[in-house]
Amino acid sequence: MHDVARLGFGTRTEFCVGGPGSNRRTEAHLRSLLPGVEVNTDHENIPDGLAFTIGGQAYRISKGVAEYALLARLTAPESDRPVFLAAGQRGINNQAAIRYLARHHVQLARQYGSDGVFCLLLKVLSSDQYGPDMVEVVADVTVEATAPR
Q1: Which of 46, 102, 132, 135 is 20 to 30 A distant from 61 in Cα terms?
Q2: pTM for this structure?
Q3: Residues 6 or more apart from 20 whose CB is under 8 A from it?
Q4: CA distances, 89 to each of 6, 34, 47, 134 (Å)
């Protein structure tokens, strides 16, 4: 569980699922490995509640209509074991990111290499009607997400 794990980073392949508001491990990975990503975990603060800000661009949630998730493959310095991070604005967006990874893992490995680092911003469309199955890639935000603030 995210709140009792006392593992280092890079000793094992890891799947970290959930946004920083519900998963401390995600929060730590974002802070240390994706410092260019800001997540507003205040879901009461509309319109910026749950928004991702990457490279100065805010990606706001439109619940059930257009929501966002990050899908990243990261490695610690001097490690060959990756962490796959799926962090969405809502739980269904986490599921959408994992399903995207499952469907496109071969294509992603070809594009980024089997040990490549990437961070994709995904948009989940009409989740109230289609669940986690309508997903499009907004952008590869690796450069912006890994840049220091």
Answers
A1: 102
A2: 0.92
A3: 26, 27, 30, 39, 41, 87
A4: 25, 16, 13, 15
- Which tokens hold the place of 113? 């290499």
User: 3-class DSSP state for residue 32?
Assistant: helix
**Alpha carbon distances (Å) from 107 to 21, 42, 71, 133:** 30, 35, 14, 18
Question: Of how many residues is the chain composed?
Answer: 149
How far does the chain reach from its first CA to its final CA, in angstroms?
A: 29
Distance, CA of 92 to CA of 32 (rounded, Å): 25
* pLDDT tens digits, one per residue of 43-81: 776 678 899 999 999 999 999 999 999 999 998 777 878
Q: What is the pLDDT of residues 95-118, one digit of tens each?
A: 999 999 999 999 999 999 978 899
Radius of gyration of the chain (CA): 14
